[in-house]
Fold:
Amino acid sequence: MTAPASAPALDLNAKLELYRMQVALRQFETRAYDLFLENYVKGTSHLSLGQEAIAAGFAAAMRPDDYTFATYRGHAHTLARGVPMTPVLAELMGRTNGLMAGKGGSMHLTSVEHGVMGSYAIIGAHLPIACGAAWSAQYRGTEQVAVCFFGDGSTNIGAFHEALNLAAIWKLPVVFVCENNLWMEYTRTTEITAVANPAADRASAYGLESIIVDGNDVDAVYEVAERAMTRARAGEGPSLIEALTYRHGGHSRADPGKYRPDAEVAEWMAKDPIPMYHARLLAEGATEAQLVEIELSVAAQVDQATEEAKAGPIPGADLLMKDVWADGGSAWRN
Amino acid sequence: MAQLTFREAISRGIAQEMRRDETVLAIGEDIGAAGGVFKGTVGLFEEFGPLRVRDTPISEQAILGAAMGAAMTGLKPIAEIMFSDFFAVCWDIVVNEIAKSRYMTNGQVTFPLVIRSGNGGGLRFGAQHSQSVENWAMMVPGLKVVVPSNALDVIGLMAAAVRDPDPVIFLEAKALYASKMDVPDGDIVDTLGTAKLLRQGSDATLVALGAMVPKALKAAEELATAGINCTVVDVRSLVPLDTATILREVSATGRLFTVEENPRLCGWGGELSSIVSEEIFYDLDGPIVRITTPHIPLPAADALEDMAIPSVQRIVSTVSESMSA
Structure:
């Protein structure tokens, strides 16, 4: 079986759903930031503002039983798989109605029932783990695919290279997606990387095609995702995709992102995936009223999730000693 | 009944579980056709084939990452880290990922996996291939830690580890690979978290682990000829820890000697001493004494390595001096 040259074209309704998802991710992250400023969201948070098209495009190409492996910048990838807003927001706020009852926090969002197999906060660690899920799918013969998202900074850590090699030699059904937002935390990625394209230029070392996609164009992302998923399901092995994008804010909540030149920020704000897609949908026959309806209904959803999360109970001591072990407990002695 | 070496017991234990459950897979470096560098997986590749007994590159993070991802999606992998010293290059996967993820996700994921590794000294391999790292694993919440001391326990504890739904670090004392014992035919399944009383005496209790167990037994024999009768307890499992058996046997004699291969600081005997002091202090008739490797990297030369790791002679002299003090 060979992968089709291009993915099946999306109809307008499907594209409106892609718009809805991107708007939802944008409004959710904006609200998460506001709630942080109001001290409802504690600790740290790494937002996907500006990078929504990658999460939305990939999720649309995935089967419900496919696996997502995300990083600490994982709110968008979690929501894109269909996890409701309330438990995600409540998790950021440390409430018992959170996705993990407050035990994981912003950087470890997980929802196994939605195929979200975890968000990992040690750079690169989840690439080999995604290989394991793909190995399992291969052994069980389920045609499931593991999709593993990571940033440009992850391409310089050893686990990236160990995982790419293992995936290639075992022909694993895994799709590695590098979200290249040009900045490794506070440092320009090209300054600390031996090649210009941190993922794509490494692909040939593992016998893989060099693939770069405009990560701010959700249609382009969907198409490249669909091709890679088809290839993986057909037993043809892994793909490594570099999606070019830009984060609208700093690395984390503590970072105002001042190191970025104004002209660069302006250039990328002009390529904001959401207004860009808004304009395209109008050109393709959607009405302004349809798009406004989407924006307003998402806003109502975010407001409702905010209220529900705020109303969530604060975790009690009963949760503290639970679930170290599969028996639900934490005993280490008799 | 058949006489088995410790290394043969490893492959028998794994094969027993792989025959029973087709979701049990083995991966590691050279474990396939080569049968493992320590010959602990001989015959598995021939019986179960390349899909279930899979060679890997020298990529310890990939090995354990793959094992973790497989375990959270329905398989029961047995991963080999050839020398436990190599845990240092993949400890992130063990500590930050495998050990914590069940807790962090409020119980959404389970990790039924076993990580086997050749542990400890005695083979003159020098400081990077001889460490005893059981204390590294013991101090991490979320890991179970098993250290068998003989072929029979290898099979039974391997079966228990594979059947356990939690991650188990299974440390194989390299110094014991060639040791032999008679092992009954048929399936053998033991229980995690159980220490074993190997010898009963009235004067002192020696608590030992892994390669130190046969040395403690030999020392107890010698001490008996000098009139000091020792109980010997094989800890077998550091997590869960069978404190009930250990505390009972220490209370009975009033003296505790730990025999540990790990370097002194933060060895498992330190934790045990703390538990004994807190809970049965008034049953003690004298100080707790820890017999350990000194706090040094292990030297390569046979003469030096033999001085470093607790020997039968050191156990005998330490116990007899302390008992007559």
Notes: The CA atoms of residues 245 and 301 of chain A lie 27 Å apart.
